[in-house]
Design goal:
With 157 residues, this protein is mainly beta. 12% of the residues lie in helices and 36% in strands.
Length: 157
């Protein structure tokens, strides 16, 4: 099998969309969230459940269990006025969707991959981040996943 070319993270995007049909992931209408600097890992190891029986004489045995992304996911971003305003609008849109029984979906895409990772999640309101002398003003955006991520065809701009 031929080896692929390693990819840079340049051009990656975090986007969101609200379901238009309750319970169905949107395939269009995703809006990019600007100023994102890093995304969390969804490459989570499954927990291991010990399954050793009395026949074992030296080693324990295990079966894979559930994967735990660890609660709210952290997206690091440059704190800008535009981001603060947009993130407030995102949370408001989520709350409106929730009142209608709909979910908000997030897409993490790479420009050189055919598929993107999608997950429904709940964005948390932005707080006041840490600040220090001589540094970029950054914030962490929190999104709590409410279902497992899936790899599907990415959306187009």
């Amino acid at each position: 099998m031929a080896r692929g070319i390693a990819l840079s993270t340049a051009g990656m995007a975090l986007k969101y969309a609200v379901e238009t049909e309750k319970g169905v992931r949107p395939t269009t209408g995703y809006v990019r969230i600007h100023d994102i600097k890093s995304t969390p890992s969804f490459n989570v190891a499954p927990e291991t459940i010990e399954s050793t029986d009395l026949e074992q004489s030296e080693y324990k045995t295990y079966v894979p269990g559930l994967k735990d992304p660890g609660g709210a996911l952290e997206f690091n971003a440059n704190f800008t006025q535009e981001l603060q305003t947009h993130w407030g609008q995102i949370v408001d849109a989520y709350e409106e969707a929730l009142a209608e029984g709909k979910r908000m979906w997030f897409e993490i895409s790479h420009p050189k991959l055919d598929q993107a990772a999608f997950f429904p999640g709940e964005p948390s309101r932005m707080g006041l981040p840490e600040a220090s002398v001589g540094s970029i003003f950054e914030t962490t955006l929190y999104i709590t996943p409410i279902d497992a991520p899936v790899w599907e065809a990415k959306t187009t701009a």
